[in-house]
């Protein structure tokens, strides 16, 4: 069972880190699931308080990532059209199948949305697009940092056991 849980821990975390960048996957939540898998291994040294701390971080980062785009779009003077455009740009960018599309899609979508709403103010439309892009970068960065911290915790917990098992094969 330990081998299965350890393998799942690493798979969840790796897919979670990818999911932090690819918006269709719940990245930090998958990484937390990986941390839980490692925690339930019989040899785990991960403290229960650590699980609670990472759960809190997972929730905080997820909420921030959900609220930040709308907040920064409004802060940069955006309208509902800009918010909808950013969302549409994100979806279209993801459907293009590239990470670059998912990154620049919200920027282009927000600009187009603002221009459709008020075609006379190009500067504001670009400002809103930059706000949308910045929110994506900040949200993604926070998720990646928390997910990598979980990966390091799992490596710290699982590696000594794997190393000892591997060395035991040759003893």
List the helices and strands and how they pair.
Elements: H1 2-21, H2 27-39, H3 48-75, H4 80-95, H5 99-117, H6 122-169
Helix pairs in contact: 1-2, 1-6, 2-3, 2-6, 3-6, 4-5, 5-6
Descriptive overview:
This protein is mostly helical. It has one domain. Helix content is 84%, strand content 0%. It has six helices and no strands. It has helices at 2-21, 27-39, 48-75, 80-95, 99-117, 122-169. Helix 1 runs antiparallel to helix 6, helix 2 packs parallel to helix 6 (122-169) and helix 5 runs antiparallel to helix 6 (122-169).
Total domain modules:
1
| Integer average pLDDT | 85
Radius of gyration: 20 Å
Strand segment count: 0
Short account of what is shown:
The protein has 171 residues and is mainly alpha-helical. Helices cover 84% and strands 0% of the residues. It has helices spanning 2-21, 27-39, 48-75, 80-95, 99-117, 122-169.
Key attributes of the depicted protein:
171 residues, mainly alpha
